[in-house]
Amino acid sequence: MTLKLTDVVLTYPDGERTLTALNHVDLAVAPGEFTAVVGPSGSGKSSLLAVAATLIRPTSGTVSVAGTDVTDAGQAARTRIRRDHIGIIFQQSNLLPSLTALDQLLVMAHIAGTRPAAASARARELLGAVDLADKHGKLPHQLSGGERQRVNIARALMNEPEILLVDEPTSALDHRRGELIVALLATLTRKNNLATVMVTHDTSTLAMVDTVVTMTDGTLTSGGWSPTG
Ligand code: ADP
Ligand code: MG
């Protein structure tokens, strides 16, 4: 398993008490597997992604990324793990306003210390893969919402992660553009053998994923949705 959460509990302080955001959660995602997480607002979906992304350390339980137990890894090690193994895509594209599409990707390679020539080739290839080959010189404000989200996806793949974590990628897009984004994520998951976890509200796209899990009040259950209803 490329991503494995075992018996994960996450609590947040909540006044005098604590709030349980993740309640003994198990999740395992294999290479090339596209998993969707559905569930009501406030049920713990983003908390799950934050723990998987090594952004938040769980209160108890273990997190394994690309075969390494990262539960007790320190700040520097976590940063390295994210840089080398995990691509993260949030709802808003959070691109840097003054950089072209190509430069958004090159920044990631620079952080990872990739040779400039290799980085440039990979960035152009990825922009091609998300169908933006002719837009590499555009600034974020010159791109549509769907195009910005595709730059975001390409950027997340720049350092060849094994894991892709995606939080509601279609919520800022209309239905058709949203479907295209999920289809693209499905294609990239297969082609790059990624372990992908996508939080979504949009049940119409679930036919494109391999596994659906449902979050309810911090508890994760398998299934919860079927194409026949
Ligand atoms: P979802 O993504 O499904 O909407 P979240 O993971 O964002 O759910 O939140 C789960 C629960 O944890 C909610 O009750 C939310 O209010 C609470 N929560 C989320 N982040 C924090 C935080 N940083 N501090 C305290 N409570 C939080
Ligand atoms: Mg959320």
Structure explained in plain terms:
The longest helix has 17 residues. A 6-stranded mixed sheet has the order 6-7-8-3-9-10, with helices on both faces. The protein is of the alpha/beta class. Helix 6 links the parallel strand 7 and strand 8. It has a single domain, classed as Rossmann fold, CATH 3.40.50.300. The protein is built from 6 helices and 10 strands. It binds adenosine-5'-diphosphate and magnesium ion.
Task: State the gist of this model.
Helices cover 32% and strands 27% of the residues.
Helix content: 25-40%
Question: What is the chains' assembly state?
Answer: single chain
Mean residue pLDDT:
93
Helix and strand run: EEEHEEHEHHHEHEEE
CATH T-level topology: Rossmann fold
User: What percentage of amino acids are in beta strands?
Assistant: 25-35%
- Assigned CATH class: Alpha Beta
Head-to-tail CA distance between termini: 29 Å
Q: Which segments are poorly predicted (pLDDT under 50) over 5 or more consecutive residues?
A: none
Number of domains: 1
Please describe the biggest sheet, giving its number of strands, its sense, and whether it closes into a barrel: 6 strands, mixed
Count of DSSP E strands?
10
SS class: alpha/beta
Radius of gyration, in Å, reads 17 Å
